[in-house]
């Protein structure tokens, strides 16, 4: 009986991760030079800005929001500006602080990125522009760079 209780307690302390919901939190599209932009030669330059943020919800639930902001120019003219905030609610418990930070800062955005990319492509094509087809993003590498930057700034302080 004691062994069963001990094993049960150990199982309850194991890490848990569960995706509860994925949704679009915010969506924006602007084509300030249309319809004139469609008559110009299409030579796009793409500027992508990525951002993530997390918020603790009740219990062991967390919201993670991945923001993709894209500005596409052809020459000096802005063809369009598009932004997608793809969000997810995750149940995460039983992780040490370092693992929790990595999960929220890299693992969850990795899950959200394909949804955000698809939403962004759909939005852009509805504006009558070619799909962006964004390349995959290595959120683990971005997270590691951010941790190095934070450690360097703390060492300087």
Automatic annotation (TrEMBL):
<protein>
    <recommendedName>
        <fullName>Protein-export protein SecB</fullName>
    </recommendedName>
</protein>
<keyword id="KW-0811">Translocation</keyword>
<comment type="similarity">
    <text>Belongs to the SecB family.</text>
</comment>
<comment type="subunit">
    <text>Homotetramer, a dimer of dimers. One homotetramer interacts with 1 SecA dimer.</text>
</comment>
<dbReference type="GO" id="GO:0015031">
    <property type="term" value="P:protein transport"/>
</dbReference>
<dbReference type="GO" id="GO:0005737">
    <property type="term" value="C:cytoplasm"/>
</dbReference>
<keyword id="KW-0963">Cytoplasm</keyword>
<dbReference type="InterPro" id="IPR003708">
    <property type="entry name" value="SecB"/>
</dbReference>
<keyword id="KW-0143">Chaperone</keyword>
<dbReference type="GO" id="GO:0051082">
    <property type="term" value="F:unfolded protein binding"/>
</dbReference>
<keyword id="KW-0653">Protein transport</keyword>
<dbReference type="InterPro" id="IPR035958">
    <property type="entry name" value="SecB-like_sf"/>
</dbReference>
<dbReference type="GO" id="GO:0006457">
    <property type="term" value="P:protein folding"/>
</dbReference>
<comment type="function">
    <text>One of the proteins required for the normal export of preproteins out of the cell cytoplasm. It is a molecular chaperone that binds to a subset of precursor proteins, maintaining them in a translocation-competent state. It also specifically binds to its receptor SecA.</text>
</comment>
<dbReference type="Pfam" id="PF02556">
    <property type="entry name" value="SecB"/>
</dbReference>
<dbReference type="GO" id="GO:0051262">
    <property type="term" value="P:protein tetramerization"/>
</dbReference>
<keyword id="KW-0813">Transport</keyword>
């Amino acid at each position: 009986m004691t062994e069963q209780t001990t094993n049960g307690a150990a199982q309850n302390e194991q890490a848990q991760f569960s995706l509860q919901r994925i949704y679009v939190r915010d969506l924006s599209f602007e084509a300030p030079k249309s319809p004139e932009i469609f008559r110009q030669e299409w030579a796009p330059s793409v500027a992508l800005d990525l951002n993530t943020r997390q918020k603790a919800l009740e219990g062991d639930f967390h919201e993670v929001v991945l923001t993709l902001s894209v500005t596409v120019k052809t020459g000096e003219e802005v063809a369009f500006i598009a932004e997608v905030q793809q969000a997810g609610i995750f149940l995460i418990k039983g992780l040490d602080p370092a693992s929790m930070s990595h999960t929220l800062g890299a693992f969850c955005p990795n899950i959200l990125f394909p949804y955000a990319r698809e939403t962004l492509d759909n939005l852009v094509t509805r504006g009558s522009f070619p799909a962006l087809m964004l390349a995959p993003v290595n959120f683990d590498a971005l997270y590691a760079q951010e941790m190095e930057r934070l450690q360097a700034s703390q060492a300087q302080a």
